[in-house]
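check this one:
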Amino acid sequence: MIPAFNEEKTLEHVVNQIIDLYGEYDYIIINDGSTDRTPEICREKGYNFIDLPINTGLGIVIQTGFKYALYNGYDYAVQFDCDGQHYPEYIEGLLTKALEGYNLVIGSRFMNMKKGFKLRMLGSRILSLLIYLTTDRYIADPTSGFRIYDRDMMKFYARDMNAYPEPDDLVYQLQRGKKIAEIPVEMGDRIAGLSYFNLITGAIFMLNMTISILFIQMFRKKRRDFYH
C-alpha cells in the first residue's frame, strides 16, 4: 500500500523499483487527492492505483488500502512510503517475521543504531517511553511507517472508523493482546518534496499522541475481537 500525496517527483522511482526488481509483490497506490501530476503519472504509466477525489489524510488512505487488500484476498499488507525513504528489499524480512505469528511487524531504524538528539528523535524517544510505561513493551521506532499487517489487523483497521495505525494505537493493540515485533531496517532520506512535519505540526502531533496514550488509550474499552 503506497500512499501518495503530491509525490510527482518520487512516484516513478519508487513504483518502478518495485515493478522492475520486486515483481513478486503486488502493489496499490492510493492517491490522496493530489494537486500535482501524481494521478496523471499513474494513468500515463498504467500503475495500479486508487484515486481519492479529495485529500483525506493518512488514516483514511491506509484504511482504503486495507479494504482493497481484504477485498482481493491478501493475507498480508505492507505500508510503504512514496517518498523514497523505504527500501523494498526489507519487505521479505517483514513478511518472514510476520509468518512467525506476529500480527504487526515494524521496520525499525533504531534496533541497531542509537537515536540522535534532534527534535524529531526526541519525539520518538518520548513516544517509546510512553508506550513502555503504559504497556511494559519497548517499541524502538513507534513512528515508522514501514509496516506489515496480517488479516486480523487489516480487518480491524478497515472496519473501525476511529482506528488509525498511529503510534498511540500501538498501546491499544498491545492491550488487546496483539503480537507486535520489530526488525532492523535502513531508511534513506526523502528524495524530493517536504515532510508534513515541521516545528508546529510536530509539536501538535506529539501533544495529541501524549494525550491519547496517557488519557485515551489507557482507558479505551478493551472490546472483544470480533474479527478472528
